[in-house]
Design brief:
This is DUF38 domain-containing protein. The protein is of the alpha/beta class. The chain has 7 helices and 15 strands. It has 2 domains: 175 residues, no CATH class; 106 residues, Double Stranded RNA Binding Domain. Helices cover 25% and strands 33% of the residues. The strands form 2 sheets. Strands 1, 4, 5, 6, 7, 8, 9, 10, 11, 12, 13, 14 and 15 form a 13-stranded mixed β-sheet that branches. Strands 2-3 form a two-stranded antiparallel ribbon. It is elongated, with a radius of gyration of 22 Å.
Length: 284
């Protein structure tokens, strides 16, 4: 589990070289050391311990990567080493943006617990496998890190995800197995009423024609352009010259694989195409 770039928000930027393994060396405090036959993970963990021990301010970003694909025993051994180091320091990583990229989904929640939830603003989870990787959402949504993050981005399909577990994010990109017209309408009510919502994007596997028809019954006809169906809704604040632009794309695009994508976003009134209907704010 290689450690990615870490920068302190200090006048002096202290960092790890994210290519320890490739260049067989690392730079720290302006000094370059040839790693030769050193254990790359052990070196990176010692450097991390040094940074955290003398840390004066929050990290802007911290990433943990598997690097080259490894076996389960190797990944778990590295996780144990990190855990030991954090227990020794008796502290968590105070980073605003915390990212995990892994081949082993069982390591995601234990690794996520390294992050200090009170500092965390953005959480990112990525799979070093195929695009259809699935993970049950039950455990991750229980963590304080999930609950306190303001933004979330992931290319992993989070299965059985409940609406109440995502609505606190101002921005997210989430993949899930399916969504209903009724759930989309609930999300629409939350989005237009909240001053903190900025952009929500769902990738999903299933949204059948019956649900599409039901959505049109609830919201009325959509406006089609740029290969997507659009609905426009006024936000709660009448002084805002902005709208909710709900976009839905389902099916084939450019002859490629099937794509299903739904986006809740904010647009300016002058960007609405001629002929599109702008619906009044309605919290019901």
């Amino acid at each position: 589990m290689l450690l990615g770039t870490v920068l302190l928000l200090d006048p002096i930027c202290l960092g790890f070289c994210e290519r320890y393994r490739k260049v067989n060396s690392r730079s720290l405090n302006g000094k370059t050391t040839n790693l030769e036959n050193s254990n790359i993970v052990d070196v990176a963990i010692r450097d991390l311990e040094l940074v955290l021990k003398f840390q004066k301010s929050d990290l802007e970003r911290f990433d943990i990567n598997d690097g080259e694909r490894q076996n389960e025993l190797s990944s778990r051994t590295q996780l144990i080493k990190l855990n030991t180091m954090f227990r020794k320091l008796n502290r968590r990583i105070k980073a605003r943006n915390f990212g995990i990229r892994t081949y082993d989904q069982s390591l995601i929640v234990p690794t996520l617990l390294f992050a200090d939830p009170d500092t965390l603003e953005m959480l990112s989870l990525y799979a070093e496998v195929d695009d259809d990787w699935e993970m049950e959402s039950d455990e991750i949504v229980k963590t304080e890190q999930w609950k306190k993050a303001e933004q979330f981005f992931s290319d992993i399909y989070l299965m059985n995800l409940k609406l109440e577990n995502v609505c606190h994010f101002s921005r997210f990109e989430i993949k899930t197995n399916s969504i209903t017209a009724g759930e989309l309408n609930t999300l629409r009510k939350i989005f237009v009423s909240s001053p903190n919502c900025d952009r929500w994007e769902f990738g999903f596997k299933h949204f059948d024609e019956r649900e599409q028809a039901e959505l049109s019954n609830i919201w009325g006809p959509s406006f089609f352009f740029d290969y997507k169906r659009h609905w426009y809704f006024r936000l709660k604040n009448p002084e805002e010259e902005a709208l909710l632009d709900f976009q839905m794309f389902c099916g084939q695009f450019g002859g490629g694989e099937g794509i299903n994508c739904i986006t809740f976003g904010v647009c300016e009134i002058e960007d609405v195409p001629n002929g599109a209907v702008i619906q009044d704010y309605n919290e019901n």
